[in-house]
Amino acid sequence: MESNSTLHPSSNFFLRQNAERLFTVFKWILFSLLSGLFIGLVGTAFYHCLNLVTDARNHFPWLIFLLPAGGVLIVFLYHIFRDENDKGTNLVLTAISSGERIPFRMAPLIFLSTLITHLFGGSAGREGAALQLGGSIGNFLGKLFRMDEKDQHIMIMCGMSAAFSAVFGTPMAAAVFSMEVVTVGIMHYSALVPCVLASLTARELAAFLGAAPEVFTVPAVPSLTLSTAALAALLAALCAVVSVLFCTLLHQTEHAYRHFIKNPYLRAFIGGCLVLLLTLLTGSRLYNGSGTSAIPDFFAGSGRPEAFILKMFFTALTIGAGFKGGEIVPSFFVGASFGCLFANLADCPPGICAAVGMTSVFCGVTNCPITSLLISFELFGYEGMPYYLIAVAFSYMLSGYAGLYRGQKIAYSKFKTNYINRQTK
After folding, report:
1. Confidence class of residue 371 from pLDDT cuts 50, 70 and 90?
2. On the chain, which terminus has fewer CB atoms closer than 10 Å, C or N?
3. Residue 58 has pLDDT above 80, yes or no
4. Burial status of residue 63 (CB atoms within 10 A of its CB: 0-12, 13-18, 19 or more)
5. 409-412 and 183-184 beta bridge pairing
6. What DSSP letter does each residue of 60-93 carry, written as one string?
7. Exposed, middle or buried by CB within 10 Å (0-12, 13-18, 19+), for 249?
């Protein structure tokens, strides 16, 4: 008679399956914590260096006149590292979806070139650089530990989340963004635990080392009524149009630069001269750098009406010419300034309009509604939640298939339950 101690084959299978799951959990706990610590440290250093060069630019206004030379220096750095055809954040996104190779040299290059851009007054953000930093280092760690291709993709997403969280201080949005941005309509949930742990670890380390999160106060959030909901929906719809215009301007400006100015050194020099000329014509340094210091003014209702248009042109002229940085923080500036303009025209509270504007434009340019909702909570608090929810819904639907990143794919239609699998425009 067979012993009762003998396990049934199904029991063996069940034990093996659970053992494999436990091993996977512990593996990703270890590697995500490692990624969060290492990339969080790099991201924090990047954060503090950006603050230093921004302070230097503010103390020495004459540095703006060196912007054309700074552009030439950036092109030279990419040339000596043999990375003239740099695809930036697009390369990181395509590496996750198609396995394209990310060179480790991307990390020091984007670090230095973004600092140069900000030091001399180029109009750019920092999150694009953070995504490239994190993606490059995450990919390097995946190769270092001899992971297979699928696990390397998760490490890239881990790195993106960790760097975004360290630099901007929004761990919820950072954890989700790297899973949501690659293929719109499909979330890479296999990376959920690694991205969450890496994001939180990097944020805690950054906070310990003095990196302050971005927070904007929204005074006097009005109660949600039919009329205020309608105004929020209208503002979100208008911001969707603004986001499409912003993306189109960025892509078309880059195309025009490359079409009319073949030499990358000359392209960067002329681009720097154009940004310098525009700075002198406006008589304001408001549009140089990331522009985050101006956003509180928009929440108070004191922004200039043309600010959102000028910031779009400053950023397009900077990024299109070959300067490095990102477009997400400029999109915050654009959204907040347009929301402020809407508030002044419609006689609405400027704080909530600026917050809705920021959320809407961010959602429109990234095509990431869940990230947009989470980042609104982390930037503005939960009191205005219904307005941010309305903003995300209408902006996502009405912004069409425009986007900051050519490497991003739209898997499902925004209007029907159809699988379309197309690139953003």
Report:
1. very high
2. N
3. yes
4. middle
5. parallel
6. -GGGGGGHHHHHHHHHHHHHHTT-TT--THHHHH
7. middle
